[in-house]
Design brief:
0% strand; mainly alpha; 79 residues
Length: 79
């Protein structure tokens, strides 16, 4: 499944944002690095995790517990 290599802190941050629905462009702007650099971090994480695609890599890091998905429940009320 995975190569057993640990993700870097930057890779975890980027994948955390993506897991929570942010786009690569939004991640780039939020953490202040170029879009190409974001993609480079994703590709390195993909290689470490054995992911087939970016989305597959995100699923793998969620399953492994490297990142946690935060569901947005805005607009819902406790009735």
């Amino acid at each position: 499944m995975s190569s057993g290599k640990n993700l870097s802190p930057q890779q975890k941050i980027i994948l955390q944002h993506l897991a929570n629905g942010r786009t690569i462009k939004e991640v780039s702007a939020e953490i202040g690095i170029a879009i190409a650099t974001v993609r480079k971090h994703i590709n390195k994480a993909k290689a470490k995790m054995g992911g087939l695609t970016h989305d597959h890599t995100i699923a793998l890091v969620i399953a492994r517990g490297e990142v946690v998905v935060h569901l947005d429940c805005e607009g819902e009320t406790d009735s």
